[in-house]
Amino acid sequence: MNNILIELILTNQCNKRCEYCDLDFRNKSLSYSDLDLFIDFLSKNKANYTINFFWWEPLLEFENLKYFLEKSKKYVNRFTIWTNWFFLDRGKLDFFKVNNVKIYLSIDNITLWKDLNLDLIKNYNEIININFINDPDYLNNSLDLYEKIISFWFKNISFMPVYTTKKRNKDNLVKLKIVYDNILSNSVVVNLNSFCYYNWFSSDKQFILDTDWFFYSDLDSLLWLQKQYNIIDKNIVKDIEINTKLISLYDNNLSLEKVISLYNKEKILRLVLDIPKSTWNIVSFKIIDKILKYNYV
Questions:
Q1: 28-87 residue pLDDT tens
Q2: What pLDDT does residue 297 have?
Q3: Which residues contact 20 (CB under 8 A, 6 or more apart)?
Q4: Other Cβ atoms within 10 Å of 98 Cβ, number
Q5: Which residues pair with 107 in a beta bridge?
Q6: What is each CA distance from 250 to 123, 153, 272, in whole angstroms?
Q7: CA torsion angle for 240, 278, 198, 166 (degrees, to 10)?
Q8: Are 127 and 103 in contact (CB under 8 A)?
Q9: β-pairing, 3-8 with 205-209?
Q10: Measuring CA to CA, how many Å separate 110 from each of 107, 136, 149, 273?
Q11: CA 275 centroid distance within chain
């Protein structure tokens, strides 16, 4: 049976406008009828599904999320969600805990987040992975915030340097190494992960279902994420769109077999290898991968 990961985008809105984010915000969301179509698709196309509620801020559509999860969980092996913490409350956390939803909670180092309610979420640390986002302009805050996070016994922490929208220079690359090495040397009590810039194909086939009802082929959201940023050349956006757009949720010929048959690994591989070279500072990112103990591919 196929292992299938689907990034389900419930909305193109977010309650925050983080400095390092340049996403295109639109007033679009999936409706109940859209979600019913997707649930019907899952029921008719058996697979080992992981559904990840992802981008922009899925908790803005919590009622839709709850509706979908409760109706689809008999067809899905695993649910995850990436979210900022602002809409979390005890009711939502209890719902996620009961339904075994893994939470990737994004916290950045732009401020020390003095209003972060760690007292609320500390009792749910077994289902929470802290996605610790590091902005290059605020690295001086990173160690203080890290100490605050681990003081509440969050054992799963992912270290993620901001990329694409922020320029890197020698000074902040040196600071990044100091911060990461310091965290690494004191990470006995936590499971510390990090995100490299050039992920490779996983054993799961990965897709995105967006608010325009289309499935896109995906590689850890790397290409599709790039497509959203306003800083990327229009020709590159078009290239990603042409080569990753697969089929509509409303297509009469929709089936998992059809979606998989349109997934062209060679095209994605070319995009992954070629497009970053023309959009990113590849030297800086090779250094970042080295800092994070990854061998550059």
A1: 899 999 999 999 999 999 999 999 998 889 999 999 999 999 999 999 999 999 998 788
A2: 41
A3: 108, 133, 135, 162, 165, 166
A4: 8
A5: 132
A6: 41, 45, 28
A7: -100
A8: yes
A9: parallel
A10: 9, 9, 15, 31
A11: 20
